[in-house]
Amino acid sequence: MEVAQEYMRNSSSIKDFFSNFLVRRMMIDHTFIFPKMIWLFASFVLLFLRYSPVILGLSYVIIYFLYISVSAVNFLCVRMLLDKFENEGRFYAKMGWVAFTLPMYNFICSWFRLIGSINISNADKQWNSLSFKKESENAQEIVRRDIHNLKGEKH
């Protein structure tokens, strides 16, 4: 999210939505993340409201097949664009299986985008990256504190 924010500030703007692929991709990815997550959490609520788990499961299967359809169309379009490039076209043709797994990969990435959106909205507006070692130390400290709180100890 921070990279997208810096990119938009320095290189582009929302008015480039129709002319710049990267702007369009970032806007779509980060806009549709919230409906995806809302639908997921709403499914659990719907189960408590006695909706049929079979119907909810079927809705997820249908949505997954729709995502696979979009991935397949994208795959075919790129395949046609690579017709003039023999080596690249052969390599890409072997990657057809990705069209079936891409929706699951995008779903997993949506969680990271959601967490990033929440984190950046709560952070100050400065670049705030930490080293892996520092992040690990912070995570360990939080776990230690939580364990102490669960045990009722003071830290």
Automatic annotation (TrEMBL):
Keywords: Membrane, Transferase, Transmembrane, Transmembrane helix. The keyword Transmembrane helix applies. It comes from the Bacteria. One of its GO terms (molecular function) is transferase activity. The chain crosses the membrane at residues 32-51, 57-82, 94-114. This is Putative glycosyltransferase (Putative). It comes from Companilactobacillus mindensis DSM 14500.
